[in-house]
Amino acid sequence: MKEARIDKVLFFTATGIAIAVCIPLGLIPERAEQFISEQYVWISSNLGVFYQMFTVLAFSFLIWLALGKYGSIRLGGTGDKPDYSTFSWVGMLFCAGTGASLLVWAGVEWAFYIDSPPFGAVARSAEAIEWASSYGAFHWGVAAWSFYALPTIAIAYPYYVRNVPYLRASTSLHAILGKDGGNSPIGRAVDLAAMIALLGGAGTSLGVIAPTIAASVAELLNLETSFSLELIVMSVCIGLFGASVYLGLDKGIKRLSDINVVLILGLLLFVLIVGPTLFILKNSLNTTGVLLQNFIRMMTWTDPVEKSGFVETWTVFYWAWWIAFALPVGVFITRISRGRTIRQVILSMLSFGTFGCWLFYFILGNYSLSLELSETFSVTGSLAENGMYVTVENIISTLPFGVAALSLFIIASVISVATTYDSASYTLASTATQELKEGENPARWHRLFWAAILGLVPVFMMFVGGLDIIRSGVLVVSLPLLLIGVAMIVSLVKSLRSH
């Protein structure tokens, strides 16, 4: 088979921008951090409400689409069957969309909220604890998964039904740009924005998980946590997802995702059994009730009166994070979703994605909350003194058979990183490929190249350091995608009406 040729404009422009961003982070980290943080403050304060409005729009549109007459449209020919089993398909889409970041945030997110709760609640009150338990699950729930489901359908429909031969973000705008619109200046700009957003989003995610894995390894082997150790961890992760990408979808990404799902379910089951099972179950049910009762309120809360900063600091940050990954994840899930209907894809992503994330928050989050409430271990104290990465390791170490639990956590985290970024590498390579017809894959060297580039940005982000730079970076790179998201809805509706 003839090897797919790269799109030189997208390839070299995206590579050049990635390197151009890394240079100031490495040479003038203090000034770079200050500049990016200033952009975050301005965007979140002045444009944050548009992220929230887009969330409402995307979620409402998807529900209408899934439950309406267009939901029965099959992505592919009328006789096409799914390429993958439901287990493997759900595993790949879940791992591509969440990765190891979920292992980190699920155990500690409530701790950021309990002393500064939303809606004017008194710090550490029963109400504050309920909101702290609920907001993490909200940030990783159906509203968040709407960001992934929208571009998936917007790309998959023209790719499989309209036979547009480009597996790229710009394919989602085919009804506006035309069938060959991916090669137009606007199409190229859309694809470039998606690639840069993915590189920035991947940098933030790896910038969170690599130090956490390094802290866990340091505790396990009685070493000092250092930037050098973080680089070693990063190199191992890059090597693993590079190998997975090289092997391809079936031999690499699919198998790694299947293994990852089993490992993570095993870890969660272990925590549920050996931890305070009754408290975990009770608070999980209580959190579900809080979410169901307050979902619309939480999705539309802008805090215009008290201006506590909670929405800008957390909800807008999370929506920006999901949006940064949205188009690239949509490209990847499109590739694995042939043979399924629009309704199946939307409802599966919203339900399985949400349920999977909630398992993490309900089990890991409630376990760590129980440590705080029982005064067994001060999670908030550790967070203030040691930071998030060491705190996550400390939480896992409190489990019975701590060494075994920490070892399982490290293995699951490394494989989670690999499953997320092998799909990201695949997406970057497919976007920067001239033409990619149904069933074809980007060149192997091309996939490996982007695996290496994906590791470049987080190295410099870790060098600059801190959660603030991570939060700021993802918001800045996601901003252009808001307009693309609205255009995506318009294009998809226009195309569906002529189906």
Mind explaining what this structure looks like?
By secondary structure, the protein is mainly α. It has a single domain, classed as Amino acid/polyamine transporter I. The protein is built from 18 helices and no strands. Helix 10 packs across helix 12.
| Total number of helices | 18
Task: Give the strand tally.
Answer: 0
Gross morphology is: globular
In the CATH hierarchy, what is the class? Mainly Alpha
Q: Say what the CATH topology is.
A: Amino acid/polyamine transporter I
What is the typical, i.e. mean, pLDDT?
86
Largest sheet: none
Helical residue percent?
Answer: over 70%
Query: Can you tell me the residue ranges where pLDDT is under 50 for at least 5 consecutive residues?
Result: none
How many domains? The number is 1
Instruction: Give the distance, in angstroms, between the N- and C-terminal Cα atoms.
Output: 33 Å
Question: What portion of the residues fall into strands of 2 or more residues?
Answer: under 5%
